[in-house]
Amino acid sequence: MSNTLDKYQEKIGCFIQIPNIGRGQVKYVGTVDAKPGHYAGIDLLANIGKNDGSFNGRKYFDTEYPKSGLFIQLNKVANLIENATISRRNTLLPQNEQLSRNNSLGSVSKNQKSNVLVTRHSLTEQKSPTPVRTSRTSSNRNVQIVSNIDYRLQDHNDDLMDIDTPSSAPRSTNEIFQNINVIREYELKVEKQQRKIIEYERLLNDQRIVLEEIQPTIDACENNIREIEQERDQLKAQLDHEREQQKKQKQYFETEHEQLLEVVTQLHQEITENERRIAEEKKQQASAATSTTTNIELEALNQELDELRKYKDETEYAKKKWDKEKEQLRMHNESLSKEYQALNKELLSMSNSSNSDDKLKKEILQLKEDLNLAHNRIDELTKSTTNTGALQELQEENIPQSLPLYEPEKKIDAAAGRKLWCVLCEKSGHEQIDCPFQYGDNACSNDANSNEPLYF
Q: Per the database entry, which stretches of residues form a coiled coil (predicted)?
């Protein structure tokens, strides 16, 4: 296990691309207090981590930002660490700078030219650990500076190859020192620009990580916006079509209205002319004797006048109907305009609809709970209804079908207490069977001896 850790220890400082997280630099490999197994400490180079490289009060590694550190189990990123390479930025730059400074303090012959070449080599070999875009203007400016240095050194070497007189020796020495100062100034400028490039690359890497995190949200928002814009365009096209149709109908109705007005005006003129002619004819008829011909013509004129009045009424009715249709079209246009405005407001309020979705979900859960309670209550009532029905059937089985009839010991006479009445003689006091007048002889003797009339 120690050999494996040593293998990963050699990879400290390399950059890896972690899926769904982003790019980071390996800064620690080993154990963590109170945690089983081995962990890798990653610096994400942006405030998207969990800590600053410490856990439970112990510092394991340093981070670029307060919240850019992250501990990950080693087995999850082992393949990424094995395939990663250590950045050459931190290893090549100090050596090249030291080499350029040492060479600049040496002789001013071929060593100066080699110093410039080494500086150029250091600028070209430095690579960014992150695949970000570099500034073309800064690199072009560095190439131009190095070419100027080469040009001046070439001129200076040509001067050294010539044989100067003793009077010209101080001048060439001054030029040498001036060239050395120029080289130093260029070296400082190159170092500043290189530091700026490193800083820009780091900022670009941070921005790239943030962009990768928010890219899915941006894509989803763009898709929603495109769908809403398509729907808006469709509604706009439909509204334009409706407006065009309404415009055509309006123009048609206006033309028809003008024609109806012209017809009504002509009818009024004809009615006036007919009334004037009828009045003249009436005057003529009043002055002269009326004949059958004039009567027929008068009736025809009256009939024509009635037809003209009827046609006038029909045209006025058509005018009123057209006015109603015009008002309906205007109201329909207003409703379409309101619907279009409402859709625009809905488009603006799409970003704030997440809170309403949460409220709707809560209401749906509450309604489901109420529905379950109602189902349980229905089941309980069904069971109780079944029990009461069985009890009622048991009670009905125990109840007899009917009670026995009551029979008295002596029969009751329904006519008891009433007066006797005879149907034959229509007298009270006896019944028909005991009537003395049912035989003829007795009836005669009784009539003779009786003072009462037979009929009364």
A: 183-384
Q: Higher pLDDT residue, 139 or 204?
A: 204
Among 308, 305, 284, CA closest to 294: 284
Which 3 state secondary structure label does DSSP give 224? helix
**Residue-wise DSSP of 89-152:** HHHHHHHHHHHHHHHHTS-SSHHHHHHHHHHHHHHHH---SS--PPPHHHHHHHHHHHHHHHHH
Residue 28 pLDDT grade (very low, low, confident, very high; cuts 50, 70, 90): very high
pLDDT, greater one: 125 or 251:
251
- The residue that leads in pLDDT, 347 or 80, is 80
Q: Read off the pLDDT of residues 297-313 as tens digits, 9 standing for 90 and up.
A: 888 888 888 888 888 88
Does residue 379 belong to any structural domain of this protein?
Answer: no
Phi, psi torsion values for 360, nearest 5 degrees: -65, -40
Same-domain check for residues 217 and 247:
no
| pTM summary value | 0.25
Average pLDDT for 213-230 = 88
Number of domains in the chain: 3
CATH number (domain holding residue 240): 1.20.120
- Domain residue limits at 123: 89-227
Residue type, 303: Q
Q: Is the per-residue pLDDT at 190 higher than 50? A: yes
Q: Which residues pair with 59 in a beta bridge?
A: 54
Q: How far apart are CA 226 and CA 368, in angstroms?
A: 35
pLDDT confidence of residue 42: 94
Q: Name beta bridge partners: 29.
A: 40
In a domain, 282, yes or no: yes
How many whole angstroms separate alpha carbon 263 and alpha carbon 273? 15
* Residue 425 included in any domain: no
Our measurement of the distance from residue 125's CA atom to the centroid of its chain's CA atoms, rounded to an integer in Å, reads 52
